[in-house]
Each structure stands twice: as C-alpha cells, then as structure tokens.
Amino acid sequence: MQLDQQKDQLKQLTEQLVTIKKQQETTQKLVVTKKKLNKEVVALKTKAKQQKEVIDNSNVLFEQKSKTQHDLAVVQKQIATLSPEIKKTKKACAEFKSGNSWNWVSQKDCDNYEALQQKLSKLKAQESQLKQSLAMINKKING
How far apart (Å, rounded) are the C-alpha atoms in residues 76 and 87? Predict the structure, then answer.
C-alpha cells in the first residue's frame, strides 16, 4: 500500500516536473520574444524621431535642397562653358611650346591656359562638394 502511494506520488511529481519544464520553456521563449520586441521598439522609436525631425525641418531641408540643386546647376553650366575655352587655349599653348606656330601665340596663351585649368579644378571641386551636400540632404529627407 505504501508502495502504491509512493508510486502515485512519484507519478504526480513527474507530472509536476514536466509541467514546470514546459513553463520554463514558455518563459524562455517569452523572454526571447520580449527582447526582440524591445529591439524593434527601439528601432521604431529611432525612426519615428528621425521622421519627426524631417517633418519639423522640412521647409529648411527643402530650401537647402533647392538652393544646392541651383548652385550645382550653375557650377555645371560654368564647367560646360569653360571646357571649349580650355581646348582652344591648350592648342595655342602647345603651339607656343613647340616653337613651330604658324599663328601668333605667346606665353600669355600658356598662362591663360593654366589659369583656366585652375579655375576648372576649383569648379570641379565645388561641383563635387555640392553633390555630396545634396546627397546628405536627400539622405536626411528620406530618412
């Protein structure tokens, strides 16, 4: 009789142990799920903050974008205008340096060529900087 009681107790304890193990597994899954949800909440809060910033500063950002695009267009037009001029002065300078020019050319042509080259370099650097600024503004706008 005692043996039967002990067997029943053992069976009950085994069932309790199985139940406890299931509860532990469920708890672990819930903890993992909670951690994942917390990460998602943080990511969503960060994105919401960035979007709020864009909305709050939208007028300023779009003004900056417009001004930067305009400045970039102006610089690109200057580069396009300067390129044919540089080709002409380069040819004249090359003729002067070769010494067999049929046309009247001088050191002034080479100086002019070098000045135009420097101007072109500055314009290209400015163009690059404006493109970077525009990319950063677009990144802020698009989040």
Answer: 17
